[in-house]
Amino acid sequence: MTILEARYMKFVHGTWRGGQGPGTAAKPTRDKNPSLQHPYSSRASQETLKISLKEEKAVGLRQQELVQKLQEEIKTLNQWLQNKSSELEGKSADLEKKSTDLQEVYTELEKLRKENEALVSAKGPPDSGICLILYGAAVLLSLLALLVCCLRTCACR
């Protein structure tokens, strides 16, 4: 039921639903008396209905304007979301490439670490070249430290 129909029912029957009940107006009878004629036949009733119709049209126009504004806002938000999505996809691709590069570097470092451990903990015969070099380097460093200490004590005197 539209607003216009509801107003008509209220005006004619005294209720919104058109039923008889307490506080309802009696139905006018058709008579030669102008006050008892059908409500649409009076000039005031016609003006009231015209005003009601204009109000209903104005409300409808406002609703259409609001719907259009909402549709434009939705389009704007959808465009913004698409732009953000594209931007994030680009960043995701960059991060994936960096992740791959870092994985390669990590693999290389792990390989070098294992090689270093193998060299340091190489177990071979006591006269193997690497062991002799390492022992010799330790002895030379100890002798150098003793020499430095001796030079300092001599220089202090």
Automatic annotation (TrEMBL):
The keyword Magnesium appears for this protein: no
InterPro entries membership: BST2 (IPR024886)
Pfam families (UniProt xref): BST2
Ranges that cross the membrane: 132-151
Segments for region (Disordered): 16-44
Key word Transmembrane helix present: yes
Domain of life (superkingdom): Eukaryota
Entry coiled-coil feature ranges: 67-122
Keywords (A to Z) from UniProt: Coiled coil, Membrane, Transmembrane, Transmembrane helix
Amino acid composition bias (Polar residues), ranges on this chain: 34-44
One Gene Ontology term from the biological process aspect of the record: defense response to virus
Protein name: Uncharacterized protein
Organism (species): Myotis davidii
Lineage: Eukaryota, Metazoa, Chordata, Craniata, Vertebrata
